[in-house]
Amino acid sequence: MTDNRAEGLKVFKELLPGLVPDDATTLRDDGFAGEIGELGLEHVFGALWTRPGLDRRSRSLVTLGALIALRADNELKFHFPIALQNGLTIEELEEVLYHLTGYVGYPAVSSARAVGREVLPPRQHLT
């Protein structure tokens, strides 16, 4: 395993604890395009999430903006919980959605809201 893939797997396990077994050394699978997970480990989590210059919280904000704009709902299912792991609050995630309505439009944000409602814990409202 290259250094970037090894570091990427470490970061992936930190950002999404419990998603893959602790002893896993790969995200490769035997299905169609089974090496996609490995490419993500090496190039995204190993090379990008480990760069100096932005902390993980800031990287989560940037990543959420891009994924919402792209309407990448499958990726948002992972990155909303990653954002919580990186210190963002539910209220801050809501503000990200509100802010993006003006930049990427209501349909993209509405789609992201549906994903958030699926994967995030419910927001506690004051009575």
Automatic annotation (TrEMBL):
Annotated ranges, domain Carboxymuconolactone decarboxylase-like: 42-117
UniProt cross-references to SUPFAM superfamilies, sorted A to Z: AhpD-like
Gene Ontology molecular functions: peroxiredoxin activity
Protein name: Carboxymuconolactone decarboxylase [Amycolatopsis mediterranei S699]
Species the sequence originates in: Mycolicibacterium parafortuitum (Mycobacterium parafortuitum)
